[in-house]
Amino acid sequence: MQMSQMQDVGGCRAVVSNLSRLTALRRVYESSPLRHELSRVRDYVLDPKDDGYRSVHLMYRFSGKGTSLPWNKLRIEIQMRTALQHAWATSVETVDAFTGEDLKFGSGSARWKRFFQLMGSVHARIEKTSLIPGTPSAEIELWDEVRYLENDLSVIRHLRSYASLTEHITGRPYAGREWYLVKMMPDKNRVTVTGHPLERFREAKRLLAEAEREFEGTKNQAVLVKTNSLRELKRAYPNYFADTANFTAVLDKYMQTRPIIRPIFRGRPGPEQGNLF
Fold first, then answer.
1. Which strand ranges, in their side-by-side order, compose the sheet holding 75-82?
2. Which residues contact 3 (CB under 8 A, 6 or more apart)?
3. Residue 29: left (phi > 0), alpha (psi -120 to 50), or beta?
4. Are 120 and 54 in contact (CB under 8 A)?
């Protein structure tokens, strides 16, 4: 496909530590006099998607000059997420990669879909933002349903087992290499990473094409990424390495803390006891 025929000419993502930083970053972009036109803002934190996805998307129209004029008015999208929102999205992609559920695009089993819906609301409660539509507003009901589905699907066990499959690549020597060919092969329980020097891009691209032909019709995936180090690669693309540690830590802690059911009082309480309804 020619670049001038594409709807989106580019995109990028920012992951920040908390909601206040997300708000500040969004304010910087919306108030900056950029050459590109901000055409639409989608606030999935204030108005989250039904599947549990939460993030802020800024859609720009590219304003080209000189040789870039053919791509004028094409879209550039900026995604902004907190670390918690990113952990949710990474876990969805990890489950998709290792089970073939395809939750990211609205398919998959009802149980997995419901679990990530509920976890969207768990995270929204932590960040004190809007809950996911169709999930319980009562904290105890949310906790009970999350607990049931976690036990039913063995979520924590599965996510930790996926992460263990990629531990063998940690610490391998990739110094001075900037192109990384990542192959996710859930059918073999393997993830491999091959580093290539910057000047050998054509060879790296050829190997990517070979992997894509080999993986056609399977759940396996291949991607070529440019970055300065394996560590940066793992930070930027945690789903390639089944890095769901943040998500499982939050889930594990949540499972161990049952919400307190507080009594509701009506009328004016007496000096020693209220009127329990």
1. 8-16, 75-82, 56-61, 37-43
2. 9, 70, 71
3. alpha
4. yes
Q: From residue 93, how far is each of 105, 130, 164 by CA, in Å?
A: 10, 23, 16
* Cβ-based burial of 267 (10 A; exposed 0-12, middle 13-18, buried ≥19): exposed
Cα–Cα distance, 106 to 101 (Å, whole number):
9
With 0-12 CB in 10 A as exposed, 13-18 as middle and 19+ as buried, what is 192?
Answer: middle
Q: What is the 3-state secondary structure (H, E, C) of 114-177?
A: HHHHHHHHHHHHHHCCCCCCCCCCCHHHHHHHHHHHHHHHCHHHHHHHHHHCCHHHCCCCCCCC
Asked if residue 232 lies in contact with residue 241, where contact means CB atoms within 8 angstroms, the answer is: no
Residue 104 phi/psi, 5-degree rounding, is -60, -30
pLDDT tens figures, 23-44: 999 999 998 888 888 989 999 9
pLDDT digits (tens, 9 = 90+) for 90-141: 999 888 877 778 888 888 899 999 999 999 999 999 999 999 999 999 999 9
Q: Which of 91, 96, 88 is nearest to 129 (CA)?
A: 88
Strands 75-82 and 56-61: antiparallel
pTM here is 0.76
CA–CA separation, 98 vs 212, rounded Å? 17
- Per the rule left: phi > 0, alpha: psi between -120 and 50, beta: everything else, 154 is left
Q: How far apart are CA 131 and CA 118, in angstroms?
A: 9
C-alpha 57/C-alpha 41 separation (Å) is: 6
β-bridge mates for residue 13, sequence order: 79
The DSSP output letter for 259 is: P
